[in-house]
Amino acid sequence: MLKLLLVDDEEIICNSIANLIDWESLGIQVIGTCLDGVEAYYTILDEAPDIVMTDIRMPGISGLELIERISRTNLNTSFIILSGHGEFEYAKTAMKYGIRDYLLKPCDEFQVMDCMKRVIEDHNKMTLQSNANPTENPLSQQLQETLIYNIVREGISVPALDENFFHSYSNYINLSNTPYQLCRLYYLEKKNLESCLLAIREYFTSNIPGLAAYKIYVSNTLLIFFPDYEVEYKQLDNFLGNLFLPSQSTSCTFERTPYPDLRTLLNVQIPKLKRFDILYFDDHDRIVANYNYNHVTLQMNQLIQELTDKDKNLSNTLSEIRSILDTISDRDFMIQLVNNLLISLNIKLSENSLSVITDLLIEIRHMNSSEDIISAALNRVLSLLQEQHDSAHYSLFIEKLIQYTQEHLSDQNLTLKYISENHLYMNVNYVSRRFYQETNQKYSSYLMNLRVQKAKEILAEDNSVKIQDIAEMVGCGNNPNYFSRIFKKCTGITPSAYIARLLP
Length: 504
What we know:
This protein is α/β, with parallel strands linked by helices. It has helices at about 10-20, 35-45, 65-70, 90-95, 110-130, 140-155, 165-170, 195-205, 235-240, 260-275, 295-305, 315-325, 330-350, 355-365, 370-390, 395-405, 415-425, 430-440, 445-460, 465-475, 480-490, 495-500; strands spanning about 1-5, 30-35, 50-55, 80-85, 100-105, 180-185, 215-220, 220-225, 255-260, 280, 285-290.
């Protein structure tokens, strides 16, 4: 469901709109209401709503300034302007930020619903198009690919794809909110797999650069799935439907199927893949064989579970894992087991961002010696278990989030979504929820209070520093009025009054 935030300094308007509409029928969840621009700004940073309906004139930050500030972040937030008849000029100003939808107060239920339907359609198109844009972080894309392939590898070895199986992965990857397309090429002979994949890679690079497309081959069938990126697929369908491979003894047959999300796609396809003993993954421009050795994989998964059990003898468990890996002669299958070991252990411990093993996963892929692969993996396992044992007050990824925030406090466009996706490689909703559970405050409140605390430290050292300069130093941009608002919100007094207190 899409998340909606309502912003108006008149509480009765917020509550009326929240209760006026059957939001669930529109596929929308109202996540809250805000009564001023400052509260709205930090709530947006914290909750990353899909749609914000905001008033124009509000204390702290106006609706226009709110839109302008959010437009500088990496959030894909759609806005609806609420304005009185005399404020229409403000609404027109907002159009330079891409805002096309507004409601004139007072408005009724049908006007709100009509406007919201337009915004939902535009937002969905924007989301689909953004899926085709090159990622800002290639490392994040590589980890995403590794995770999805690991879901398939683990999925074919477990008895059932239950809620717990997907839940652990949903903390790191978007399984539910993005539609996917699945393409199938039937009758593709194994001898032509490499040339076929090369042609497909070149097509995607030329026509949809940056889009992550995952490819799995089993018994003369190639599966290609990727996030939905547009409404029409005529060009792609024409390419795959007429793909010519000279040495094919028979022509390939193509079909494409849309899925509402990645979880549904995997739920349907993984049980079908269980029938095959070997799966081939297109892994960073090389074909990697995935051996469906159920007995070995099941045994390894049981040992991984034992590593998280405090009552088990970890030394014996690690020895058993070492024994299994020592018996594997096929390098690709060994890497498959090691990847599953490291990723699953991180996920099951629930205290580690996958960023701590991302570099190692890449290094292992390029190791030739089996002993090097095993030693690197087990050393990392020991480190993970030790970190779990020595963990401080907060989880490791929360500590990393706090550290990054403190180091980049002057960045006025800092968002929880950006940090989660580009430095923690985790789902922003999960990070937000865990941050609140462990710190007893929302990230937005923490960020605002941290900026004010930093400002107080600067003033304590030199109370002659200009308010405008302090605003920029603590991430409030060239906006002393906004800085003064949040300072008073946190301390109860203005920066000028605080400076007066510091004077002898």
